Amino acid sequence: MANPTTRSRTGTTARRSLTAAARAAAKRAERIGHDPVDKAEAPTAADLVEDASDAPPRRPEGQQAGRTLLIEPPDGWDDPPEPRLESEDADDAEDAETADPGAERTARRRSLLTAVVAVLLVAGLVAVGVLGWQYREGRQAEQARTQALAAARKAAPVVLSYDYRHLDRDFAAARKHLTGAFLDQYAKTTRTVVGPTAKKYKGVVKATVAKPAGGGDPAASVVSASPDKAVVLLFVNQVTQSTQVSGSRVDLNRVRMTLTRTSDGWKVSAVDAL
Which superfamily, per CATH, for 134-273? Predict the structure, then answer.
């Protein structure tokens, strides 16, 4: 025998379901403009119960069907860089263009100042080097003038004098003051021309560097001078005696001597009569 309590509860529940279903159907009909009184179009209670029992449960709004899978990234996987929008690149470019102009000008001034200081420093070093070289050259040239002038005054009387009675000694003494090609030329000339002529005519030549009438240093001056070479102009008096001349003959000559610095001092490398 069936339990009456169970049937009563079941019937009550069924009636509540029908009532709720009817109310829902009426509301749907009103929303779509249908007349709920029209029994031909209104669903029956059995249809509503059947529809309610067959319809799947409704999901809360916003919930989607399907399963969620978790995928672990493989080893060594690096997340790709986030994409940059063109607007961001434009903003970066705009930031670079709108950087502080004062800082840029200051940096440029510093760079320009550094370059100017470097140029001035190099120019100063070059100027100091040039001035030092010129000073050294000037001192050497001044020393050359003094030394070459003294050597010329000493060499002129020896080179331009001779005596037929001791020619070899006089020519040997003269060669000590000579250098270079002029030494060879002098040796050849005295051996082939001057020596034989002096012996034949008993020639004697005595040369001296002229002195001013009022006294003082011999008349000689430096025409040009460098550390290794100098040109000296001398006024030389030559007194000549021979069998071809009655008495003595005095010749007033101007002689240009070129002197060259050697390891043994200043030597005559050329003699020209003017």
Answer: VirB8 protein (3.10.450.230)
